[in-house]
Every structure is written in structure tokens, then in C-alpha cells.
């Protein structure tokens, strides 16, 4: 074969090889594009699929409410909630007592002398705090109490230190604070040192509010088993009252007094008229069981309850009714002690 024929043959083979190579390149490029498109598309589709699956699971859990898990943990959760509720309640009571103590100290009115600072901070354990409800116009009654059953001077301090019995006249302020009436009480307190001044404006229609503030203030200042309220026209045998209350020391929530259940007076203009008589049912209905207002005692837990919830406790026209209403719905033992009733013979009087 001649060199010429070999060159032609070689040239044709080269052309064929180039065309084949070109087709192969184009084919590879198309195959590559197709493969690449699939590689990019599949993960995206897969991701969407997985995300949708997860959303479906979430929606399923939400729609089912996770009932099996909740049901399994119900008993344990209830136990934890009870503990938390108890802890929160204790903290609220301590906070309320601390706030009342701070307000009393800053205002400088609860006690006279150095007792204003020492008593709230020491918190000595006492048997009872006796608050004698009095008014600006009751100077003669107070002098009568001082001359009969309420110790004076060092004897009053000794009663507190040795017997754990605190006795104070309880009074607020006049409508014009710092006026003549307030100055008269301050002079009397300076002489005797036996007043508990409240952040309260005095008034006959404000006795329910005054009672609430009294217990709140007393709890913040003294730690006692019982807190007593007595009117300034009642004479008390402290030894008998102390023995009576001491016999109930083991009971957590007691309300002791001369219990009654008088009629709800709807008629206007009569004494003890109840403006909210309609809350007690049909006309002629009676009040729930409660102690007469002249003398009663409540345990520490109940006094603390009043202190903690003072802002939401409703007050009725009559102070004794208001106090009784605050304990409705609570696990409270009502103790009817007839020796605490007015009109009893002198030898039965406490």
C-alpha cells in the first residue's frame, strides 16, 4: 500500500475518532446533567418528605394531647403540686407578716418605747395577745380597765416576759391625723405605754376593717398561740382566759367565743341593719354561726390567714359577722364557750 493511501485511511480514522469522541462527550455531558439534576432534586424532596413527616408527628402528638404520658404522671404531679402550694402559702404568709412589720416600724406607731424594735425582731413565743378595742372618747373605760384587770408598768412587762401574755389598747387615727384627738392618745400612751396604734381611720362603721388590721398587725409583731379581741367595757379574768385557751393549744385552727346565730336585719334605720341582707337568702333568715363581738379568740393559723388575705376578705356591717364570714369554707373548729358570753354571773366571767 502506498503512503498516500495510508494517509487517507489514517485521516478518515482520525475524523471518525473525533466524531465518536465528540458524541461520547456530548453523551457524557447529558448523562452528567441528568445525574446531577437527580442528585440535587432527591435530597430536597427527601428533606421535604422528612420535614412533613416530623410535622405530622408533632400534629399527631398535639391532637392526641400526649394523654398516656400525662395520665402516667398525674399522681406524681399532684403530690408535687401539693408541696409547691404549701411552700408558696407559707412564703406568702411570711411575706405578709414581714410587710406589716416593716410598715409598722417605719411609721413608728404600733408600740411605745424600745419595744417597737425589739419585739418584731425577737419573735418570742407567747401564749396570747389581747387587743382591747377602744375609741378616742373612751378614756374613762380605759382607766377602769387599768384599775381592775390590766396590769400597769413593770407588772405589765412581767406578764409578758413570764407568762407570754401581751395586753394592749387598740386604736387607729382620727380623720385629721396629728390633730387634738391623736395628740391626746399619744400623751396617754407616753404615760402608760399600753397602746397598739393601727394604720386605720377610726369610725363606728369601720369596725370590721379595724378588726382585720388589728389581727394583721398583731401577727406581724408577736408570735402567739392565740390572738384575742375584747371590748373596753368588758372585764377579763386573765388567768381563767389563759387556762381556757391553753387547753386548746394542740388544735391548729380554733375559733373560740360565745357563739350565736342572730337574724339578718333587712329593715333600714334599725341597729345592726345589714345592707347586704340579700346575700343571706330569704327575708327572716339567720346569720351563720359566729362569736359575739365582745370577746373572742382565734388561733395563730387563722390570724395569719387574715393577715395574708386581708385585701380580699369582705367586710359586712357588723364586725362579728365579718369575722365569722372569713372562716366559712375553712377547716375551722368553732368552740362555743358560754363563759365568754355577756350577762353571765360574775363568778363565770372571764
Features:
membrane; alpha/beta; elongated; Glyco_trans_31; Spore Coat Polysaccharide Biosynthesis Protein SpsA, Chain A; 16% strand; 350 residues; disordered N terminus; disordered C terminus; transferase; seven-stranded mixed β-sheet; 7 strands; single chain; 11 helices
Helix/sheet category:
alpha/beta
Q: Report mean pLDDT, rounded to a whole number.
A: 78
Uncertain segments are 1-8, 38-52, 55-77, 106-120, 344-350
**Spatial order of strands in the largest sheet:** 3-2-1-4-6-5-7
EC number: 2.4.1.-
Cofactor: Mn(2+)
Main location: Golgi
Subcellular location: Golgi apparatus membrane
Description of the molecule:
There is one protein chain. The chain has 350 residues and is of the alpha/beta class. The chain has a domain at 110-348: Spore Coat Polysaccharide Biosynthesis Protein SpsA, Chain A. It is 53% helix and 16% strand. The chain is built from eleven helices and seven strands. The protein has helices at 3-64, 67-72, 74-107, 115-122, 139-148, 154-163, 180-192, 207-221, 238-246, 300-308, 319-326, and strands at residues 125-133, 165-173, 195-201, 223-231, 254-260, 290-299, 333-336. It has a seven-stranded mixed β-sheet with strand order 3-2-1-4-6-5-7, sandwiched between helices. Helix 3 (74-107) crosses helix 8, helix 3 (74-107) packs across helix 10 and helix 8 packs across helix 10. The model is unreliable at 1-8, 38-52, 55-77, 106-120 and 344-350 (pLDDT under 50). Its cofactor is Mn(2+). It is an enzyme of class 2 (transferase). It is a single-pass type II membrane protein. It comes from Nyssa sinensis. It is found in: Golgi apparatus membrane.
